[in-house]
Amino acid sequence: MTSGATQLPSINKGPRRVWGRGLVHLGLLLTVAGALATLTILYIRNAIHSDIGLVFVGLVVVHLVQRRRTVARMVSQFGRVHAFVKRRILLAGSDMLLAFITLNVLVSGVWDWSRGGPIQLPLVPRPFDRWHFLSGVALVLYLIFHVWHRRKRLRGSTIQ
Question: What angle is formed at CA 31 by the lines to CA 30 and CA 32, rounded to 5 degrees?
């Protein structure tokens, strides 16, 4: 046998990574929409809303794991204030804000569930007087902003 016969052809994983990242972003958008729809529009039981919300939290973790090298590189550059690094710091801050808002939605949802009803916020007009609902709206608005500002880069981005 020749050595050429035993070699396997190389597989380009680039397109698969782009698809994987795109599917995670699509999953994030769909699970947020589903979680909000089950809670505010369809008035479906909390268990379904909780399941969809937990899938969303899992997808956020997958999103951050897909970007682990980029996030680690950006976090390590927080100490420097160069024009080149400024954009990366903003991206890292954006990812941290996404993680914080997602954690806020998770905590408020678990707290609502454990109490058996929504936690009311004082001095906030209806329907935004519920902590979990307000944090969910903030998450949806931030996700729209997050994806809109990355729409051109998402098409050709790869998972590192």
Answer: 90
Distance between CA atoms of residues 115 and 113, nearest Å: 5
pLDDT digits 0-9 by tens, 114-124: 887 777 777 76
Stretches where the chain sits below pLDDT 50 are: 1
> In this structure, what are the phi and psi dihedrals at residue 130, rounded to the nearest 5 degrees?
-100, 125
Decide if 4 is inside a domain.
Answer: no
Residue pLDDT, tens place only, 57-76: 899 888 888 887 877 777 77
Full residue range of the structural domain in which residue 89 is found: 15-155
**What is the value of pTM for the model shown?**
0.51
Does the residue 39 lie in any domain?
yes
Q: How many domains in the chain? A: 1
